[in-house]
Amino acid sequence: MVNKDFFKALDDLQAEKKIDKDVFIQTLETALTSAYKKMYGEAKSAMVKLYPERNTIKIYSYKTVVSEVEDPDKEISLAEAKTIKKSYKVGDMVIVEETTKDFGRIAAQTAKQVVMQKLREMERQNALSELSEKEDELLTTIVKRVDGDTVYVQIAGSNTEGVMMKNDQIPTDKFNVGDRVKVYVKKIKDSFRGPQIQVSRSNIGFVRKLFELEIPEVASGDVKIKNIARDPGNRAKVAVFTEKQNIDPVGTCVGNRGSRINTIINELNGEKIDLVEYSDDPLEYIARALSPAKVLSVETNDSLNMSQAIVPDDKLSLAIGKNGQNVRLAAKLTGWKIDVKPESFLKQNSAASQNENETEYELTELSDETSFDMDDLEELEPIDENSNDEQ
């Protein structure tokens, strides 16, 4: 069977779609072999070979030479084999080219189906491979459509569509078709409909990439982001540090007159950002993480991974934050459970503490009237922190 146009089409596919022709050929050989067996018997040993250099497709059947034939479809007697070639001996493989004119139509139909199926499959794989490089990246997109709480965006410069679910949106986000929005590529997965890109603006990766975009020292690695804790749309805490003595990590991120951090805050629709300088000393790190509240002292219990922070009485609400937000984010940022206590509590209990020879710090259980344990924070009435907020 010879078909120059068929092989030329494979060359065109390789040039236009950047799909390896050899992969097509291997797939076609397997599919055509299967089609041949269905037509002439599944038990028959056969194979189809494509020769692009000669624009030829050939079909071969093969049998093993045996002294006594038990399976005629796969075996041939030594005597019969010698009629084909005298040098054959038991154990050799006799390969014979088949001339089956009737197979041409079946072969053409099978080849067309395989090419189309493989083309779709490989285009999807190529697209997935190309898009996988964009995972964990910040991209500029255009809002394509809004369907209920789900927003579909088109990646700029491509026909690829991204999906942003409600929980991946900042609560203050408002989208209109045609809007240009920055998104974080959270995950890329394959599906029966093709590659699906899950994008987000609520993920902490979105904040991290904004810092890399707006602050050259973060992009270069001179200033590093240790951790991020975030309540999307309300507040985020970002721990930064540097190994270079001539760089102030917090000041670098703030920028001249707040130009850098304000650009990031604007992209986050006004979400407040507390910049915290990271420290290897957990006491210092916890105190800084409770910013903007002033912390008088911190004690920790390593075995329980818990800490107690003492703050001025008039800064207690600021340290805890509205609905416990500030202390909750500080705990996420540092990895320590944090119990915030007012200074007056420390003074009231100082006499009792002096009478006890404790060699190790232990958290003190307070009454319901004075306790501010994290488990109780959600039950507190919302506190207006505007009067105390020092930011």
For this structure, the CATH topology of the largest domain is N Utilization Substance Protein A, Chain:P, domain 4
Largest sheet strand order: 5-6-7-9-8
Which percent range describes the beta-strand content?
25-35%
**How many β-strand runs?**
15
Q: Compute the number of structural domains.
A: 4
Broad structural category: alpha/beta
If helices are DSSP runs of H or I spanning 4 or more residues, what is the number of helices? 13
Averaged pLDDT: 83
CATH class of the largest domain: Alpha Beta
How widely separated are the two ends? 81 Å
Report the CATH architecture of the largest domain. 2-Layer Sandwich
Overall geometric form? elongated
Provide the low-confidence segments as ranges: 357-391
Indicate the percent of residues in helices: 25-40%
Major sheet size, sense and barrel closure: 5 strands, mixed, barrel
Cα Rg: 35 Å
Order of helical and strand elements: HHEEEHEHEEEEEHHEEHHEHEEHHEHH
CATH superfamily of the largest domain: NusA, N-terminal domain
Polypeptide structure, described:
It is elongated, with a radius of gyration of 35 Å. Strand 1 (46-51) and strand 2 form a beta hairpin. It contains 13 helices and 15 strands. The chain has four domains: 4-130, N Utilization Substance Protein A, Chain:P, domain 4, CATH 3.30.1480; 138-200, Nucleic acid-binding proteins (OB fold (Dihydrolipoamide Acetyltransferase, E2P), Beta Barrel); 205-278, K homology (KH) domain (GMP Synthetase, Chain A, domain 3), CATH 3.30.300.20; 279-391, K homology (KH) domain (GMP Synthetase, Chain A, domain 3, 2-Layer Sandwich), CATH 3.30.300.20. It is of the alpha/beta class and 391 residues long.
